Amino acid sequence: MKLKVLGTQSPYNTKRHNCPGFLIQEGENLLMLDCGSGTHKMLRYPNDLQKLSVIISHLHRDHYNDIYNLQYASFVFHNQKRCNNAINIYVPKTPISINEDIKLESNSFAEYHDISENAKINIGNMEVTFCKTDHPVETYAIKVTSKGKNIVYTSDTSFSAKEKIIEFAKGADLLICEASLLEEYGFPEINSHLTARQAGIIAKEAKVKELMLTHLWPEENARKYVKEAKKEFKKVVLAKEGKNKKIH
């Protein structure tokens, strides 16, 4: 599997950074995990639409805003006979109004699927499974496994879901973990997001091989997140737009 970082920041994108998104390639298949604002510009059109699946971890705008760009692009290229395969879009069932808004988009060449904690998806050689996290809306951590290797993406979560995520991510080759907060600001232990140190604790207790931090506050010095996470776990990297990584 090959991973490309599409976006790393929240709650809004800036000149050099996009909201959350990651692209996994396995063979000819492409799997996009979240499509926050700005991520659509990182794809190659129309080629990447031909074998594209998109999983939206939860229906907060910083994680799904660009789905409408992808829908319209698929519609246009299909009409031009330059895209023969519908993109597959996987979304949580709630909030119902947003789920339906995405599915009812008429200018789209796509097929739609709901996800749940018990869902299992096969995309080429990739198997995708889910773990429900603790967040204000229905939200899922996502595990992508292929040929004995796996990538786990936590999406957004409270530390109250720590034990579930540790079990889900156990032994992962790469854990892509949100680290929205820094403990220096005095956030309570249980919040709707993780501190960088909490991300490090999860990585350490799950015994993952590498931790990649994402979902960072735009105005903050990104090196602070790495420094804080390394108090608990040493092999930490920062997610950066355009960065490619092979999972061997």
Give structural attributes.
21% helix; alpha/beta; 14 strands; seven-stranded mixed β-sheet; 248 residues
Structural overview:
It is a single chain. The chain has 248 residues and is an alpha/beta fold. It has one domain: Ribonuclease Z/Hydroxyacylglutathione hydrolase-like (Metallo-beta-lactamase, Chain A, 4-Layer Sandwich). It is built from 6 helices and 14 strands. It has helices at 61-64, 67-79, 96-103, 162-169, 196-206, 222-229; strands spanning 2-7, 21-26, 29-33, 52-55, 87-92, 110-115, 120-123, 126-132, 140-146, 149-153, 174-178, 211-214, 236-238, 244-246. The strands form 2 sheets. The protein has a 7-stranded mixed beta sheet. The relative contact order is 0.15.
How many beta strands in the DSSP annotation?
14
CATH architecture: 4-Layer Sandwich
Strand order of the largest sheet: 6-5-4-3-2-1-14
Gross morphology is globular
Structural class: alpha/beta
Task: Outline the biggest β-sheet.
Answer: 7 strands, mixed
Indicate the radius of gyration in whole angstroms. Answer: 17 Å
The CATH C-level class name: Alpha Beta
Q: What fold name stands as the CATH topology?
A: Metallo-beta-lactamase, Chain A
User: Structurally, how many domains make up the residues?
Assistant: 1
Q: What is the terminal-to-terminal distance?
A: 7 Å
How would you spell out the order of helices and strands? EEEEHHEHEEEEEHEHEHEE
* Mean pLDDT level: 97
Low-pLDDT segments, ≥5 res:
none
Task: Give the CATH superfamily.
Answer: Ribonuclease Z/Hydroxyacylglutathione hydrolase-like
Strand content: 25-35%
**SS element count, helices:** 6
